Amino acid sequence: MIPAYERDPAAIYRKSFETIRAEAALDGLAAEEADLAIRLIHACGMTDLPSDLVFAGRPVAAARAALADGAPIFCDVEMVGAGIIRRRLPQTTEIVVTLNDPQTPARAKEIGSTRSAAAVDLWRDRLEGAIVAIGNAPTALFRLLEILEDGALQPAAILAFPVGFVGAVESKDALVAIGHDIPFVTLLGRRGGSAMASAAVNAVVSGLVEERP
User: Fold this and answer.
1) What is the reported pTM?
2) Chunked in runs of 10, what are the mean pLDDT values of the chain (213 residues)?
3) What is the fold, at CATH topology level, of the domain defined by 51-204?
């Protein structure tokens, strides 16, 4: 027998945030950081995330200022871009995913790495002042750090949530260790994913809007 369940969208959304606030340890986070953490938890259902979040600078404020200046959002995979609530973005904001660009396979062979890493090379000329959201490939984050080390102009903020068992931990640790003085947020460990990267962008765009998304 199917149990009784909540059917009202607004009530589901409201109760979700009430549960997150009751269960998650948000003490010590600035208001904008707490909003972002709540968005991340809402995307994945894991209320223990705040203990593994690392913030450098003020990535939310930096990304909001970049959006106001017309900056693009670079995403490592289509799923990150698809999860961004576009109606809340400035109308002129461009969401850029180059994973399937025709140049990417050849570039991957040239650099001896994945298509995800090669796709990052295609951001280079427009990276200055942009927002970077990585929710899948550790090699994309590693490549971003490499081209920054090589002198690429810096993005406004990095939202780094690569996921997996090979390179995810190490790529995020490298971001924390190197940083390049760029505001960023990342989730230490193996956890991450496209839904989290999208949720981070959505937190930047609209804060914590507690209504049906």
Assistant:
1) 0.94
2) 92 92 93 94 95 96 95 98 93 96 97 98 97 98 97 97 98 94 97 97 76 43
3) Rossmann fold (3.40.50)
What residue segments make up the domains of the chain, in order of their start? 51-204
Separation of alpha carbons 200 and 72, rounded Å: 15
| Consecutive H or E run containing 19 | helix 9-23
Query: Strand 131-134's sheet: what is its strand order?
Result: 53-56, 184-187, 157-160, 131-134, 73-75, 95-97
Q: Which are the catalytic amino acids?
A: 42
Torsion angle in degrees (nearest 10) through CA of 145, 147, 148, 150: 120
Structure tokens at 163: 């996921």
C-alpha 37/C-alpha 40 separation (Å) is 5
114-145 CB burial, b ≥16 within 10 A, e <16: bbbbbbbbbbeeebebbbbbbbbbbbbbbbbb
